């Protein structure tokens, strides 16, 4: 692990270079950087701005640190005339980069801003300014959050009526959940799910709040914190659906925003993250969700964003065999193939499109017929050819081809005639694609060398 230093240590070396060696500010910084990097020190969280060292005071002046100190005094004294200016400085500085956010965090920005939140409850302008500053501070460093902040933010959701305040509160909750499993669990235990669903119901006419709440619900289902061996993503999705009745709420809102592509895409993404059980998939179909998704997909088939999110949720729903049949019966396979052709230059659409076809054709020979009747194998191979350097596309393409021929060997010949073997062999150069590529080659009847990963040896077991 790389060694690190404090901002103060770096500043001292820069100032020493300026005073003792009469270097220019730029040269002083460059020399300090070279010194520390030669020692193997990570400077990614150090602010190296020449503008900080130009004062006559002989010290480094960090605007964000000074603004935090000034805000703390203003809150303690009740003199809030300049509070908005201090908040804007903190917000602007934290938006520059992670180094400034970390510097602010180390100088107690979080407790100062939480104290300001409590003090400015009755002042809408200062309240939104404080929440904006907290959002900027927390972006990329969710560790700043504590139990006091969790309680306060959920209280804001339940009590505040101002839409700007609610939007910023939900955004702050979302930012403090990304890549932080403990924060997610603490929020859920504190009743966040119900608070978000109630907020969604109370403010369903506000597009910005709907979008933020949908995103926040989705973040609760992430498994992105490398510091924990097992997350609670699946459990959180169950809580959101079973206790929050989120599927019905989200689908009802989908019906109100049929003309808003941004909201539709956001809601589809969240639905795709929530249908983690077979009965949840059925519930979506029973509520008319499948028809709604397919209709939106068809109407917006030339919009890359909607297409990608619609495919994402269709793939998730297709985990249920009855829904697979319903999708194909409704013309979903033809729609997916058309969308892949329309957006063939976009690797993200190609990947999720091939993955959806793979899911729809799994254990379903009748669905494979629909793919081949519409030259779907050529669409898949074309996607692999265009994105020959994209592992995700190649992997999902191999899975789709394998599923098509697994129970319908009569399709091996036309697929091979279209150049599948060469493309699949090219995919094998990527380690992440090798297993899927070998499975596809095997089921297509091609020669493939299968290696034993390990071989047991005769002998007694040592007790």
From TrEMBL:
Keywords assigned by UniProt, alphabetized: Repeat
Keyword set includes Repeat: yes
Regions crossing the membrane: none
InterPro entries linked to this entry: ARM-like, ARM-type_fold, ARM_LRRK2, Armadillo
Record has Transmembrane helix as a keyword: no
SUPFAM superfamilies: ARM repeat
Domain LRRK2 ARM repeat: 269-408
A single GO BP: hematopoietic progenitor cell differentiation
ARM repeat spans: 191-225, 288-332
A Pfam family annotated for this UniProt entry: ARM_LRRK2
Protein name, per record: LRRK2 ARM repeat domain-containing protein
Species of the source: Potamilus streckersoni
């Amino acid at each position: 692990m790389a060694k690190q230093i404090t901002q103060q240590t770096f500043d001292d070396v820069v100032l020493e270079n300026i005073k003792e060696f009469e270097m220019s500010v730029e040269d002083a910084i460059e020399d300090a950087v070279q010194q520390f990097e030669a020692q193997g020190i990570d400077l990614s969280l150090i602010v190296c701005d020449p503008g900080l060292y130009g004062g006559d005071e002989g010290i480094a002046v960090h605007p964000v640190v000074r603004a935090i100190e000034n805000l703390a005094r203003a809150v303690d004294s009740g003199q809030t005339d300049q509070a908005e200016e201090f908040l804007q400085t903190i917000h602007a500085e934290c938006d520059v980069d992670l180094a400034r956010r970390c510097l602010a965090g180390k100088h107690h920005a979080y407790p100062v801003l939480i104290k300001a939140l409590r003090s400015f409850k009755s002042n809408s302008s200062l309240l939104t300014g404080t929440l904006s500053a907290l959002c900027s501070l927390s972006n990329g460093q969710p560790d700043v959050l504590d139990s006091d902040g969790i309680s306060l933010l959920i209280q804001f959701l339940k009590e505040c009526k101002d839409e700007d305040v609610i939007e910023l509160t939900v955004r702050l909750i979302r930012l403090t959940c990304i890549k932080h499993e403990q924060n997610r669990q603490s929020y859920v235990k504190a009743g966040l799910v119900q608070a978000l669903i109630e907020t969604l119901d109370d403010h369903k006419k506000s597009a910005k709040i709907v979008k933020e709440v949908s995103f926040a619900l989705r973040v609760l289902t992430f498994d992105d914190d490398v510091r924990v061996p097992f997350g609670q993503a699946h459990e959180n999705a169950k809580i959101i659906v079973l206790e929050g009745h989120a599927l019905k709420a989200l689908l009802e809102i989908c019906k109100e925003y049929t003309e808003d592509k941004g909201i539709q895409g956001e809601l589809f993404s969240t639905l795709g993250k929530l249908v983690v059980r077979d009965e949840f998939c059925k519930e979506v179909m029973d509520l008319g969700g499948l028809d709604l998704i397919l209709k939106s997909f068809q109407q917006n088939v030339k919009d890359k964003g909607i297409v990608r999110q619609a495919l994402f949720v269709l793939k998730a729903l297709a985990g249920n065999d009855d829904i697979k049949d319903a999708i194909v019966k409704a013309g979903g396979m033809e729609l997916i193939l058309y969308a892949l052709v329309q957006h063939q230059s976009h690797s993200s659409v190609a990947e999720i499109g091939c993955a959806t076809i793979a899911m729809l054709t799994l254990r379903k020979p009748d669905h494979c017929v629909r793919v081949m009747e519409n030259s779907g194998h050529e669409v898949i191979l074309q996607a692999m050819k265009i994105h020959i350097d994209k592992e995700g596309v190649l992997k999902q393409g191999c899975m789709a081809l394998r599923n098509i021929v697994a129970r319908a060997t009569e399709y091996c010949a036309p697929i091979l005639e279209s150049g599948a073997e060469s493309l699949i062999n090219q995919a094998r150069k990527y380690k992440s694609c090798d297993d899927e590529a070998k499975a596809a080659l095997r089921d297509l009847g091609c020669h493939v060398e299968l290696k034993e990963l390990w071989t047991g040896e005769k002998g007694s077991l040592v007790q």
